[in-house]
Design brief:
The structure is a single chain. The protein is α/β, with parallel strands linked by helices and 597 residues long. 29% of the residues lie in helices and 26% in strands. The chain contains 15 helices and 27 strands. The strands form four sheets. The protein has a 19-stranded mixed sheet. The radius of gyration is 31 Å and the shape is globular. InterPro entries: At1g61320/At1g61330-like, F-box-like_dom_sf, F-box_dom, LRR_dom_sf, LRR_FXL15/At3g58940/PEG3-like. This is F-box domain-containing protein.
Length: 597
């Protein structure tokens, strides 16, 4: 290997232009500009980089340093706009003269015009439009493969569709003027993304007809579409469609591997967006996601036949679902979220890996699982905004019993009144064993009270025996009351006098053998309202039982931190049950579930 040399000026390590180009491709426009100052070789590579980015917003903000831009003269504004156009032409000069390849062009106008006065708006539009036309023309002539535009109030240059080398095209917010099929020459296009673009259905059809090799298609927020079709793309593998009020789409793409269809206004109860899948089967489809789409129970009738290799199913905010039956030999992951009319679901999914259910409604659905693979996980997120009584805890018990073969995680947000009466439940449930649960995340609303807390714990510990109980702490008076209750109830469980009004508390407290508490920092992130810990958010403190509340609160506030996650690790006494009895009970449960299916 040849010995590396160093430039005489900056002392930066010399690298071949190809490697510098590769490094610059990971940097922003501003970062790559700074990198060009490292040495002559870096400057030369920067001047011939295959990825170009132009952002008038950034350019104007550097020039218009005063926030009150209207104090500047019209001449100054005009000069700045002319400077931007000159900047574009100067950057493009070596590419135009030497025919240097332009692999990627990003041109983003977003957010410029809303910040400036009418005169400035007009000047910047002219500068942006001229710069856009200029750089697009050079890019197309120099074999551009990827074009990424964000063009409020601008037309997409027609020359774009004459780019035979084009592989990826992304347009946001701009106008696409009608063109005939014969003028659309980018037949090598593999990826097309259209978001908030003004175009008509006929032009969309002309694009898809002229670009039959498209493999990835994203179409979202297109107001001019009432009904449109995706039916001429036999190579299509990934499709993402975002529909507006009462829009519908017809899809006939048998080679699809991923399909996402979303009602962008799913909060509108009166809107019904529809999708029609016309192919008889989608043998390659692995991931299917519907949000707010008008599908009914019948959609799942021939599910196994139509999607024989589906692995991921996500169904959210589909209001017409009531009682569904899903049978699939391939499904591994299922997520059902806020399908508000769903009361029952039956699953025959032997390869299931994870199941998630989230809802903020009062009805607790009935789930039935046939024999499933071992080692799968289930997660339930229930946000209660209406009163919770004893019968709700009975239904929760039945819900958890339906996934007894899985490792269960449960998250409940009580934003309501809670009442739990053991005598009332005894008339409903004759025999009962709490369900083993891996983790329970518990949240109370700001109207927390001791009575509400005791009823919640009595009911939940009658339903299940969690190994871990998580609670979010915010340094707020109300949340401190809830955390104080949890801490003192679980950690100081030997003090029985304060529980004289709750007979059941004495029962589960008697079974509580050991408790440890761990404090996590907020190095966490959230997926669908579920707390997931990162490495940065792992255990920070572990405390002993003899630490009183005031000292524990001081520890939570340590280093000025106002938010933490507190985890109680619980160990309950087990009541010995003969192994043969356990085996028979499990066998009877499986038989009962199979009969229900």
């Amino acid at each position: 290997m040849a010995e590396s040399s160093r430039s005489g000026g900056g002392g930066a390590l010399e690298l071949p232009p190809e490697i510098i180009h590769h490094i610059l491709s990971y940097l922003s426009a501003e970062e790559s500009t700074r990198a060009s100052l490292l040495s002559k070789s870096w400057l030369g590579a920067w001047q011939t980089r295959p990825k170009l980015e132009f952002n008038p917003k950034l350019y104007f903000h550097k020039k218009l340093k005063l926030r009150r831009t209207w104090l500047r003269s019209k001449k100054q504004i005009t000069n700045i706009c002319e400077e931007f156009f000159w900047h574009v032409k100067k950057t493009l000069k070596p590419y135009r003269k030497q025919g240097i390849c332009i692999d990627t062009l990003n041109f983003r106008v977003e957010g410029v015009f809303s910040l400036l006065n009418p005169f400035v708006m007009e000047c910047t539009k002219v500068a942006a439009r001229n710069g856009l036309e200029e750089c697009t023309k050079v890019a197309v002539q120099n074999g551009v493969r990827n074009l990424d535009f964000s063009l409020p109030d601008c037309d997409l240059p027609e020359i774009v569709f004459g780019a035979k080398s084009l592989v990826e095209l992304s347009v946001r917010d701009g106008y696409i003027m009608p063109m005939s099929v014969g003028k659309i020459m980018c037949s090598e296009l593999r990826k097309l993304c259209l978001i908030k673009v003004d175009l008509d259905v006929e032009m969309f059809d002309n694009i898809t007809e002229s670009c039959p090799l498209i493999e990835v298609l994203e179409v979202r927020y297109i107001e001019g579409f009432d009904n449109f079709k995706v039916t001429k793309l036999n190579n299509l593998k990934e499709l993402a469609v975002g529909l507006l009020e009462n829009q519908s789409v017809i899809v006939d793409a048998p080679e699809l591997e991923s399909l996402t269809c979303i009602d962008e206004e799913n909060g509108n109860e009166e809107s019904t967006c529809l999708i029609t899948l016309t192919a008889s089967w989608y043998q390659n489809l692995k991931c299917l996601l519907f949000t707010g789409i008008g599908i009914g129970d019948s959609f799942f009738m021939e599910f196994a036949y139509k999607f024989p290799n589906l692995e991921d199913l996500i169904v959210r905010y589909c209001r017409e679902l009531e009682s569904i039956k899903i049978s699939s030999q391939s499904l591994k992951r299922i997520q059902l979220m806020d399908n508000n009319r769903l009361v029952e679901a039956q699953f025959d999914v032997p390869k299931i890996v994870s199941f998630e259910y989230c809802s903020g409604r009062s009805i607790v659905p009935r789930f039935h699982f046939a024999a499933a693979s071992s080692g799968w996980t289930s997660y339930f997120c229930l946000s209660k905004r209406v009163d919770v009584n004893s019968s709700w805890f009975v239904k929760l018990r039945e819900l958890l019993a339906s996934v007894i073969q899985s490792k269960i995680s449960l998250e409940i947000d009580f934003g309501c009144s809670i009442s739990f009466d053991l005598d009332e439940i005894r008339n409903i449930v004759k025999t009962h064993e709490p369900q083993e649960v891996h983790e329970l995340a518990l949240q109370f609303d700001w109207m927390f009270s001791l009575e509400k807390g005791l009823s919640a714990l009595d009911g939940l510990f009658w339903v299940c025996r969690p190994k871990y109980v998580y609670a979010h702490w915010d340094d707020d008076v109300r949340e401190n009351e809830a955390m104080k209750f949890l801490y003192e109830t679980l950690m100081f469980r030997k003090i029985q006098d304060r529980f004289h009004d709750s007979q059941l508390s004495k029962i589960w407290l008697h079974d509580l053998k050991e408790v440890n508490v761990e404090v996590f920092d907020m190095g966490t992130y959230v997926i669908v309202d579920r707390i997931v810990f990162t490495e940065r958010g792992m255990k920070e403190q572990q405390q002993q039982e003899d630490l009183d509340w005031e000292n524990f609160l001081s520890l939570l506030r340590n280093n000025g931190i106002r938010e933490r996650i507190v985890c109680f690790k619980l160990e309950f006494r087990t009541h010995d049950i003969p192994q043969e009895v356990k085996r028979l009970k499990m066998q009877n449960l499986k038989l009962d579930q199979q009969q229900k299916l």
